[in-house]
Amino acid sequence: MNSTCQTYLPLSESPVTPEHKSLFQAYQRASWIWTPEVGPYVAPYAPTGEQRGFRWTYVNTVPTRTPSKATIIMAVDNYFALYINGVIVHPADPDNDLWTAQALTVPIQPSIDKSIGDEKVVFSVRAVNARDTPHVMQNPAGIVAAIKISFDGSKDNETFITGPNMKWKGEALLEPGWVEVDFDDSNWQDAVVFSPQLANAIWDPHRRRGPTKVLVGASLPRPSTILPVPITPSVPVHIGGPRWSDWTITLGLKEIAGILIGLVFVAFVFA
To answer: What is the pTM of this model?
Structure first.
């Protein structure tokens, strides 16, 4: 049986608009954050080559309006994957420049929070800390973001920035399904919010640049079929040679069982 998932990809590229420039101004006031770390590391310093998961849940408490679009400006030291309600929006790309903010705009469809009855949208980030310093114990890691929620048929919007009014949760050990909208993150810790003095000493504001382009999703997530891996009753065994088709032996289940029995018998005789 085939299974289905949803995807925003591929996104199209668009020039930076006044809307994104305005959001970038809010982004510049945002705080850098990261997960609490275990000794000997103290955030914002984190192990090289490890990933951390982050979740932020937007809850719409005004029933007369419906969230319809999310605009995100984000940077991660060093790179990240972004999901909205469990759907991939931005795949992890080690070539991302942490000094240049990434801008994305996608339509959204809120889910219903069964516990309170309000609409919610869950943003999840998989952040990876690559090695960018010779001092292993002083390799910084962080996330900074601004997110604007727009509403269907309305000029109203809400803007959130990491730290002041956007409280993220973080975790080092990521369970299956952690990006999904109904995943229980109640045991996750609150992300550490760094002071401007500490953040500016690590991430020089003069090096931080605004987005050079906007990645745009034109429609809601689309179904994407994943074909199952075919299962056959025989096992192909390749034994080398210039042509695979000439040197492939196909063994049935009976032949494999016979070989195993023979190996056990030989091992018994020479034991």
So the answer is: 0.79
Q: pLDDT tens for residues 80-105?
A: 999 999 999 999 999 999 999 999 99
Q: pLDDT tens-digit profile of 170-190?
A: 999 999 999 999 999 999 999
Phi/psi of residue 187, nearest 5 degrees: -90, -5
C-alpha span between 23 and 145 (Å, rounded):
10
pLDDT tens-digit map of 112-147: 887 777 899 999 999 999 876 666 677 999 999 999
CA angle 74, 131, 8 (to 5 degrees): 35
Locate 76 and state its tokens: 């991660």
